[in-house]
């Protein structure tokens, strides 16, 4: 039913046409049964006018069948396209919902979402989209067969149809058992198996897999992990076979019994030849209530996928199958620098017992440039993710210009961030700098300020930054970082009031990073900027430097470079250590 509702939403007009064609075709099939019966029944009376009449009826109905089927195929193709577009919209919403990313840290939830999204790309889902008409049509023709048989012995067609429906029901739930399980519960073993397979096949791991000679080892571990993951499923499937066999036996008995009754009635002379031929066809037609081959399997799979998609959407707070209500666009729009406040913020990742940040208070006045430094795991990136509203704090508040970025879309858009693992879009250089529209001036200025003008001169705006496309190119780590920086600068031109660079410059050498940060502070003067880096020489020119304690235990030092050097504490120690190593 879910599939019908989605189809209707996606394309009401073509769905109605498909339904009309399906009903007509079912009626034609039913009339054909009667027509053939009457035609055969009229034969003993030699070629009378009645024979010719029924011959004509049968011929017309036989011709109408293929015409209706071809029309239905064309309309179904139309419906399927609209349906798939609608489903992919529903899937796209799953990808970007909710605002935060906390749910993606829970392995089960993240891999279930991935499994559902992958299933909607699977051929069985794509082909299953049209299967609904291949089921509804025959089922309607089955109703026609019941109507033909009712005047004879009403309980016989009902019993035969029920036995076919029973087989269909039991078989579908047996098929769906495995498919639902694959979608609803992923389990560690299946996740591991899928990861190992991706290591064998993905470009990112191709180098190491070859250089370390990992192919055989990975194949063996993948195979055994996959068997481990699937064994339980296969066991369940085997145990579900009993009811299928039982239902098939019941169905065989009822069909056999129905034919035996026709035979007895013909022998007793209570049923004519025409009646017997019509009824035999009708009983055979009742198998339309049964499994219906590939269409049935495809429909079962596609129904399971839709159900899993609806469940995932509901868990994410989206309506099950309709589009999400449009977010009210905030009217607040400003290009001024933003003020940032974190008050008593504590936060722990769901998968970890300890807190990544505890009781952190930090105020950044509008327009100030601040560097956040600290040892690995001190919570620098976590702080930035809270600031972007990707996570909500367990305690305390995060505010950008007084608004909570976790719930306020306008506040979130005021924060432009380039993370260490920024995305390298397989898109033209232009789109890598600004995804959306921007004037050529903004594009060029941003790329120039990020030190990437040479890239433009060499490749032009339209070269795709991926070798997977004709004429495309890949960039070095440092060149990619300049493109990412240009993206951040363009965001400021577009209205962002806080600019955050969370170590996106690690691939640059020390001197290049320091020069870039200096230029960055220069061109973003007046904008609130937050720099995260391990290289203290690179961030020394920030207005203010905040040192986070290890283990997320808050701020240990806070001041300008000169003040912290005078303090001779943690920062001065780290700075001295790095400077000595660099000098050596
Ligand atoms: N998604 C996550 N799930 C669970 N724990 C996480 C996650 N991300 C970070 N952590 C943990 O939270 C703590 C703080 O991590 P965070 O990445 O904020 O540190 P960081 O100061 O940015 O470190 P680095 O300098 O190495 O980038 C670490 O102990 C880390 O293991």
Automatic annotation (TrEMBL):
InterPro entries (UniProt xref): AAA+_ATPase, ABC1_TM_sf, ABC_transporter-like_ATP-bd, ABC_transporter-like_CS, P-loop_NTPase, Type_1_exporter
Annotated localization: Cell membrane
Residue ranges occupied by any ABC transporter domain in the UniProt entry: 340-577
SUPFAM superfamilies: ABC transporter transmembrane region, P-loop containing nucleoside triphosphate hydrolases
Molecular-function GO terms, alphabetical: ATP binding; ATP hydrolysis activity; ATPase-coupled lipid transmembrane transporter activity
CDD domains the record matches: ABCC_MRP_Like
GO cellular-component term (any): plasma membrane
Protein keywords: ATP-binding, Membrane, Nucleotide-binding, Transmembrane, Transmembrane helix
Keyword Transcription: no
Residue intervals passing through the bilayer: 50-68, 123-148, 154-172, 244-264
A UniProt-annotated Pfam family: ABC_tran
Topological type in the membrane: Multi-pass membrane protein
Stated name of the protein: ATP-binding cassette subfamily B protein
Lineage, top ranks: Bacteria, Bacillati, Actinomycetota, Actinomycetes, Propionibacteriales
């Amino acid at each position: 039913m879910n599939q019908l509702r989605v189809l209707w939403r996606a394309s009401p007009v073509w769905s109605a046409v498909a339904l009309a064609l399906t009903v007509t075709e079912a009626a034609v099939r039913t009339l054909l049964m009667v027509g053939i019966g009457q035609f055969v029944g009229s034969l003993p009376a030699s070629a009378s006018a009645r024979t010719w009449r029924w011959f004509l009826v049968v011929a017309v109905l036989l011709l109408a069948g293929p015409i209706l089927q071809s029309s239905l195929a064309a309309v179904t193709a139309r419906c399927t396209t609209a349906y798939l577009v609608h489903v992919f919209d529903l899937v796209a919403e799953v990808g970007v919902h909710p605002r935060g990313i906390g749910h993606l840290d829970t392995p089960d939830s993240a891999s279930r979402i991935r499994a559902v999204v992958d299933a909607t790309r699977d051929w069985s889902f794509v082909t299953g989209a049209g299967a609904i008409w291949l089921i509804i049509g025959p089922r309607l023709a089955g109703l026609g067969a019941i109507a033909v048989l009712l005047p004879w012995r009403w309980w016989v067609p009902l019993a035969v149809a029920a036995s076919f429906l029973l087989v269909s029901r039991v078989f579908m739930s047996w098929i769906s058992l495995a498919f639902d399980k694959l979608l609803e519960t992923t389990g560690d073993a299946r996740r591991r198996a899928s990861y190992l397979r991706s290591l064998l096949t993905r470009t990112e791991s191709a180098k190491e897999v070859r250089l370390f000679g990992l192919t055989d080892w990975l194949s063996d571990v993948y195979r055994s992990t996959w068997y481990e993951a699937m064994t339980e499923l296969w066991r369940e499937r085997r145990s579900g076979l009993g009811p299928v066999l039982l239902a098939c036996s019941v169905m065989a008995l009822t069909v056999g019994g129905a034919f035996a009754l026709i035979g007895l009635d013909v022998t007793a002379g209570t049923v004519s030849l025409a009646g017997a031929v019509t009824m035999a066809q009708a009983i055979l037609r009742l198998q339309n209530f049964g499994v219906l081959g590939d269409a049935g399997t495809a429909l079962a799979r596609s129904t399971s996928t839709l159900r899993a998609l609806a469940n995932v959407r509901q868990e994410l707070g989206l309506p099950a199958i309709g589009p999400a209500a449009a977010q009210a666009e905030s009217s607040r729009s400003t290009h001024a620098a933003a003020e940032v406040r974190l008050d008593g913020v504590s936060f722990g990742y769901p998968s970890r017992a300890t807190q990544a940040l505890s009781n952190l208070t930090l105020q950044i006045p509008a327009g100030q440039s601040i560097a956040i430094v600290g040892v690995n795991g001190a919570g620098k990136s976590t702080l930035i993710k809270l600031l972007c509203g990707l996570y909500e704090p367990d305690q305390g508040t995060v505010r950008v210009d007084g608004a909570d970025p976790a719930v306020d879309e306008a506040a979130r858009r005021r924060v432009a961030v380039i993370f260490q693992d920024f995305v390298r879009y397989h898109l033209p250089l232009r789109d890598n700098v600004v995804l959306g529209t921007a004037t050529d001036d903004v594009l060029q200025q941003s790329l120039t300020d990020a030190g990437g003008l040479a890239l433009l001169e060499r490749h032009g705006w339209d070269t795709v930054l991926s070798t997977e496309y004709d004429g495309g190119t890949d960039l070095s780590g440092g060149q990619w970082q300049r493109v990412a920086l240009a993206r951040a600068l363009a965001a400021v031109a577009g209205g962002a009031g806080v600019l955050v660079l969370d170590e996106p410059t690690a691939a640059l050498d020390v001197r290049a990073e320091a020069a870039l940060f200096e230029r960055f502070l220069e061109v973003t003067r007046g904008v609130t900027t937050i720099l995260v880096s391990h290289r203290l020489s690179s961030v020394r020119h920030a207005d203010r430097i905040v040192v986070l304690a290890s283990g997320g235990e808050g701020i240990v030092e806070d001041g300008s470079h000169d003040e912290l050097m005078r303090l001779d504490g943690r920062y001065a120690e780290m700075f001295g250590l790095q400077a000595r190593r660099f000098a050596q």
